[in-house]
Amino acid sequence: MAPAIFFALLFLLLFSASSYLQLQEDGFISVALSDKGLDYAKDLLIEEAISSVLSLQVPQIKKSVDIPLIGNAYMVLSDISIDGVQIISSYLKTGESGVVLIASDATANLTMNWRYSYSGWLLPIEVSDRGGASVKVEGMEVGLAVDLKNQEGTLKLILLNYGCFVGNLSIKLDGGASWLYQRIVDTFNVEIEAAVEDAISGKIREGISKLDNSLQSLPKHILVDNTAALNVSFTDNPVFSNSSVKFEIDGLFTGRNEVLASNDYQRGSETCVSCGGFSKMIKISLHENVFKSASLVYFKAGYMQWIVDELPDQALLNTAGWRFIIPKLYRQYPNDDMNLNISVSSPPIIQVTDRDVDATIYLDIIIDVIDAGEVIPVVCISMEISASCAAQILRNNIAGNLSLKKFSTYLKWSKIGNLRMYLIQPVMSVILRTVFLPYVNLHLRNGFPLPVLHGFTLQNAHIFYTEPWITVCSDVTFSGHDSLPQLPAYSDPVL
């Protein structure tokens, strides 16, 4: 097939009728690669392809020619290898049915060995010669079209069409009586062109097969710590437009040994967050239900309760420090040490606004008195805390910092009678600011992993809020540690 016809067919594949016009099943994390991101991915793929082609060995070529008066001439080209490739231009195009990648005006340098022999009735003995040769390939065109489909939560890469076409090549012989055989070797042009085209086409098939296997092996869950995992399975086929590719990921947290049904959460509005005029490679949008599911998992696991036996103001952990705040406590338990048993009474209520993330937290603080070695619960104070969280990007994690907006207190129960809550409220403020918020932020700063492939790192990220979505717009860099896609394992706790 002629190159022009072949590449025209590749583009027709993009805009043929496809299943992507069907209704999408939504996830709670959306990842979109922009044309800038696709261009970066194209350059990485071409770099990897060139690296693999440089180790390519082309099968040897044999040819036998009957020369009048002389007899049968036999020539072999062997050890044919590609030792240099340069691509002048390339482009990647997306459409409804997938992606087309074309590299054009490519040049390649080949080296090979040649061996020549002939014998006939005029020469009763065989005459042979050998040497090396260099080949310059110009005007080479390489193209392929691929499709991506969701296959039970992973991605299946399908090679729709591919091809390689060599424009011109020139052969230069070295060694032996090369000047004598140059014209004969020139007759090998067609065979060398076909061999190079077949070899590179084979490399395309091999490369796509390896990439498909890697995509199929991507985990469906990322372990965050010993308690939680993030569901990163794909919920539907990727959506291709003329300038981007969008992936829908489940995105909900689960316990390590639990299965959480996504239909327990409603997604609501579509993601329509822009990057604020920034031209970025990747856009990752997280629905507020991602954070709600994390909150629920850690609440059920008992991570939202702890005993406080040290304070910046240690006097508050002795009844003497409370003698003017709760006199009855001091009179009944004079100079006894205390603990604060702090627990979140229900999963925090989380809502993404157009400015930040709002959190409503219901907290119980039980004052325990340690009397003669016995821990005695004396008072329980309940608090309703209104806080805001500013999202941050730390490496490939999304982290946060919680700030107190306001809080209210009320007496839940008491073994020492009624209390003057207006005296207790300032003490609770100190405990919130010096104990609760620093403890929570210590863990929020670790964050949790975004679905970014191993070897890639977010760079110059910006965060945008549009209820109920948080969107991270970022460029990426590639470390080059591993050419195969894989998601990382994490061990940093969230809470």
TrEMBL record:
Name the source's superkingdom: Eukaryota
Protein's name according to its UniProt entry: Uncharacterized protein
